[in-house]
Each structure stands twice: as C-alpha cells, then as structure tokens.
Amino acid sequence: MSHPSTHLQQGAPPTPAGASDWHAWSAAWTQHVPLLTGRTDLTVLVVPGAAGDAPECFYPDLNRIEVDATYIADRPDVTDPTKARHKRIVPTGYGLLVHGAAHAAHSRWATPPGTPPILAAVADMLEESRAEGRQRARRRGDRRWLRHVVTTLLDPEDAAVDDAWHAGQLAALLLARVDARIVTSKDVRPVRAAVTGVLGRKRLRQLRDIWREAHTCADADADTMICLARRWCQVLGIDPDQQYDTPVPDAGQFAGRLAAALVDYLAVAAGVTPAEYAAALLAHRHSPPSEWDRRDPTEQEHHAARDLAHRLRQARTQHPEPGRRPSAIPPGRLRTRQAITAEAQIAAGQLPTAAPWQQRAQLPPEKPRLHLAVLVDLSGSMDRYTDAMSSAAWIFANAARRADATTTTIGFGDRTTVLVPPRTRPTQVLTMRTGLATATFPEAVKVADQLLDLRHGRTLRMLAVVSDGYLDDIPAGQQLVTTLHRAGCAVLWLHPADPPTDGEPTDPDQSWGHTFTHATTLTVTDPTEAIAAIADAAVTALTQA
Fold it and tell me: Which residue ranges does the record annotate as region Disordered (predicted)?
C-alpha cells in the first residue's frame, strides 16, 4: 500500500513532462473540483508520473491536487472529461480525484514540528479513513468512487510480514474504512480474520476505539490526532520516544496471512481469483527487461531437454518391487504344497505351522511432483555463467513439461527477474545480463516460494542457487534458507571455484565465498558442471522419494 503520507505533501514538486497532452483533463477537473471540495482556490494537474510515488497527492502549499494519468488510461482521448459520463468510463481515475478532494476539504491540520516520524505516520494512516468518511458524509454519492480507489492505494508488499505494526497498518487503512462507511464489513472479512490472528481480539478492539475517535476529530485538530497516534503505538507495544522511525519488515521472513488476506481482498475487487491476481502482480514487477536478447534453441539444447525429461520420467515411475510374504489366512495365492502340509499337521493333531497363502505387499504410493526453483546470481562476477544458465532455464522448463514436474528460473541482482515462470514452455532462450549488485537475493527466495509454494504442500521441493556467495544482507538470506530447510525444502548451492578478479569492488558488510548453513554446497569449476549438478540432484531426489 502506498504510504499515506505520500497523499499529502508539503512543498512544491516539479511538473512532470507530458502535461500538455493531458491539459484538457487538468482544465476540466480544475473546473469540477469546487463541486467536490467547496473550495475555489484549487487546481488539478493530470499527467503521467504526477503525484510523486503515489497515484494521487494533495499539495497544501500549492492548493493543488495531482493525479497520475497512468491510473486513468493509456491515452487522453479515452473519453471527454467535460462530460458527466466520463466518471463511469474511468472510475479509478475519478476516484483518485475524489480522494484528493477529501484531503483538500478536510485534511486541514499539519504535523506539529518535532513530532517523531512514527507518530506522524500513524496519524497520517488514521487521516485516510477520517478524510474519506467526512467526504462521504458531506457528499454521499462519492462513496461509489472512493470504493474504486481503495484497491489502488493498497499493495500486498506493505503487509510483508505478520507482525503487530503491519497488522495495525492494515487495520488503519482498510478495516477503519468500514466504520467510515467506504467499504463493507463483508468486503474485509478475510482481512479482519488475519489481523485478529496477529493482534488478538482485545488489541484490535482497542485500535478500533482509536480510529473511531479519530473519525470524530475536527478537520484542524492536529493535537488530538497526534495523541491518538501515541495511544495507537502504546497498544502495539511501541514506545515512540524510543523508536522514532516506523518499523521496517524483517527481510528474513516470508509473507504470511496478512499478505494472503490482502491479496484475496484485492483479487475479489478486481474480479479475478487470488492466483490470477498474484500472477499478474508478479508479471508486472518481475518481468524480464525488454533489452534482454532472445534466440532460438540449438539442437544440443533440444537433445538435453529430451534427455533430462527421460531421466525425470524414469526416476518418477521407478518403484521398488512389492515384497512377497507367506500367510496362514487369505487373501493371496494358494500354495498347494503348503496347504497339504498344513492339513497333514492338523490331521496328526499338531499345531499347523505351514502358511498355505502367499500375499504381496501393497505398491508404494505415487511419487510426489517435483518443484524446482533455480536462482541465478546476476552480479558482475557471475558474468561467464549467465549464458549457460539462460540455456539451462529453457532446458529445465521444457523437460519439466514432459516429465510432470514444475520449474522456474529467477535471476537476482539489482532487481528480481522471473526468467521462466512455472508451467510454461518457452519457445526461445532468453539471455540474462549481469549487473553490479546482488541486493535482491532475499526477495528472489520469496518470489520462488510464492511461485512454487516451497514451504508447504506434499510436493518434492528443491531450491538451487548458482552464486558466488558475494551477497548483500547475508543474515536475511540465511534466515530464509533455514526456514525452507526446516519446512522440508532441499537447498542446493552451486559455488564457482574462481574468486573475483582484481579491482572488483568489495564491501565490509559482504563476504566473498560465504557458505550458508542448512544448504548443500558444491564447488563447480564451469557453468556446464553447475547445470549437470542441478539435474543430477533433481533426478536423485525423485529416485529416492
């Protein structure tokens, strides 16, 4: 979710380029905004990239509302903004205008100087539902448009972990809108259950008392809003005099029930399934850059994919022969000689020891489906591995389609890139490019878990990492690897044998050749050896399953 303070900014931002193309929208909404706010001193700027990092922002110093045009449409001629019908054609964009109007009309207070940032952040969160509630009370029809914009202002990334702070943030930005009569209690039922699971009923009830009191505050009552923010922190066990800044999520923790519940809510609002919404979100954030090259696979790569698929099928279908055992009672196959012996023993008055029936042990259960995630380090020191691992991504994906397995290949560097999504059969080889950083390893592990559910399920799960271990935030990476290990996911680390070249930048917080615990580490001398090691590990895991 966009941080609430980004919707209400002091100062004067630069005007983005392209304003002339959307001038008609800016003029039409400037003429319309007095009806929404009761103010005649406001202007509206509509342009792609406006509002800074937020979809919409109100700048009190400029008396200006900015709306990012990308949330309206791809081009300005989608409709005529001077006509009333344009609201129905671009409901999200118009909802952003109404949201900005709510701040312009009712957010008449400013954070007092010297206020700890954490208190300012909480007060801004409470202001979101307070301003929208006041707008709805003054103009009841605006609720329709505000409902459209709620989903635009929410983002699952900000419910990244299940802790008290993020549960409270989700409560303030979504559950509080129920009492503001913007969304309904039915809409947020899964979110309420998740927040209750993290905070407990008592603390959630205390937070609700706070936001309901905030809804009754006057538009210019800054002191009361800051006092309510302090009470909010106390309920969450945070001392704002000791912890000035807002808490950040632990990079070593996976997303939990809060993020899942928020995805469910956003998916329902978008009219899709949670799986479809999550897939679209991943595609939007982690698609390969357009400058990466594509090529047709070679005959050797086709042969390698067929060979690996054959090995995986053979390992999956190979079962130990059922054992045979004698039995004194049916069912089973009657052994005539043993039956005659048993009758003779009975006729002689002896206790029969012969077992006339032969039974077969049950067949072993079907082997689980293989889920394999391959993470490739895209830092500069791994440059000679990128071509081979790009080829491997195509081989693994095409082999998996033939062998009832699921694979994905993810590159991590200065950003996380899903090279080959699960359950796809790429027709071309996409060649990765290296960069300078490895800051996104923890994020890449979380994306792999989201795509293949590495922490849960009855599948055979494996994470293979091709990296020199020269990474940022090693403690967070270790924590994630340990979590996967304890959940039953095997972690294989392929480590190049050669060190970085002379003159390569180093950092005291980073470690060359770091070896992670709870991972099987193999040193490889060339890219081909790394590919073979991953394939062999997958086949061995299936054989022994």
Answer: 1-20
User: Position 539: which residue type?
Assistant: V
**Roughly what angle, to the nearest 10 degrees, separates helices 117-138 and 201-214?**
60
Quick one: what percent of the chain has pLDDT higher than 70? 91
Count of all residues that appear for the chain in the document = 545
Question: Of the candidates 383, 455, 388, which has an alpha carbon nearest to the alpha carbon of residue 413?
Answer: 383
pLDDT attached to residue 5? 43
How do beta strands 357-360 and 520-524 pair? Answer: unpaired
For residue 322, pLDDT beyond 80: no
Whether the per-residue pLDDT at 342 is higher than 70: the answer is: yes
β partners of residue 397: none
Q: In whole angstroms, what is the distance from residue 505 CA to residue 494 CA?
A: 22
**β-bridge partners, 460:** 370
Q: Are 58 and 100 in contact (CB under 8 A)?
A: yes
- Of 69, 60, 18, 17, the C-alpha closest to 42 is 60
CA distance linking residue 217 with residue 324, whole number of Å: 80
3-state secondary structure labels for all residues of 378-441:
CCHHHHHHHHHHHHHHHHHHHHHHHCCCEEEEEEECCCEEEEECCCCCCCCEECCCCCCCCCCH
Is the per-residue pLDDT at 203 higher than 60? yes
pLDDT at 367 > cutoff 70: yes
Please tell me the predicted confidence (pLDDT) of residue 454.
94
At 294, is the secondary structure helix, strand, or coil? strand
Alpha-carbon span 538 to 312, nearest angstrom: 8
Please enumerate in sequence order all residues whose Cβ is within 8 A of that of 257, keeping only pairs 6 or more positions apart, or say none: 162, 194, 197, 198
CA distances from 460 to 383, 453, 475 (A): 31, 11, 26
DSSP character for 151? Answer: G
pLDDT digits 0-9 by tens, 464-502? 999 988 888 889 999 999 999 999 999 999 998 865 555
Nearest of 443, 484, 501, 492 to residue 467 by alpha carbon: 492
Alpha-carbon dihedral angle through residues 528, 533, 538, 539, given to the nearest 10 degrees: 90
Separation CA 156–CA 279 (nearest Å): 13
Residues 117-164 have pLDDT tens digits of: 999 999 999 999 999 999 999 999 999 999 989 988 888 887 889 999
CB contact set of 227 (below 8 Å; sequence gap of 6+): none
* CA 457 from centre of chain: 18
pLDDT at 425 over 70: yes
Nearest to 236 by CA among 263, 198, 179: 198
- Specify the DSSP element, H or E, that contains 490: strand 490-496
User: How far is CA 229 from each of CA 71, 201, 232, 245, 338, rounded to the nearest angstrom?
Assistant: 31, 20, 5, 13, 85
DSSP structural state of residue 472: S
CA dihedral 405, 406, 411, 415 (to 10 degrees): -170
Neighbours of 119 (CB within 10 A): 24
Q: What is the pLDDT of residue 472?
A: 84
The tokens for 361 are 């042990």
